[in-house]
Amino acid sequence: MPWARPGSDFTLLFEQAAISLIKEMPVLAVSRQLEIADKRLWRIVHYYVGRMLSEVAATGLDETASRRGQRHVTVLLDMQRPQEPVICAVPGHGKPPSRPSAPSRRRPGQRGRSRL
After folding, report:
1. Residues 16 and 38 in one domain
2. Number of domains into which the chain is organized
3. Which end of the chain is less enclosed by CB atoms within 10 A, N or C?
4. What is the C-alpha to C-alpha distance for residues 74 and 62, in angstroms, rounded to an integer?
């Protein structure tokens, strides 16, 4: 169908409307409102987020606070995009949202957390 992306059961207009709602509400609430399974909405989200991230060449990560010692936010930026460079913003600080998880170095029978 020319009005749908390959492999999708939805029209491009429906996907656009769903993404617009997902930007403002949780996916589960949108799935109830649109009367479709949340798993199908997550597939739409993963497709468009993956497509957008594949176009990113250089990223930057910044942690900032609105007031001294309070309300921290971690921001992921596209360094090549002069207009609207923010990819995502996550409340909190300390661990960046894009940090890969480290493999465990625990031996069988060892208790507690292992340090790398």
Report:
1. yes
2. 2
3. C
4. 6
The number of C-alpha atoms within 13 Å of 94 and in the hemisphere containing its C-beta is: 4
Domain membership of residue 33 as a residue range: 12-54
Neighbours of 76 (CB within 10 A): 19
Q: Residue 1: inside a domain, yes or no?
A: no
Within-domain flag for 105? no
Q: Tell me, what's the pLDDT at 81?
A: 84
pTM: 0.58
Give the tokens for residue 34.
């649109």
Q: Which of 14-18, 61-65, 86-90, 104-108 has the lowest mean pLDDT?
A: 104-108
* Residue pointed to by tokens 């989200």: 45
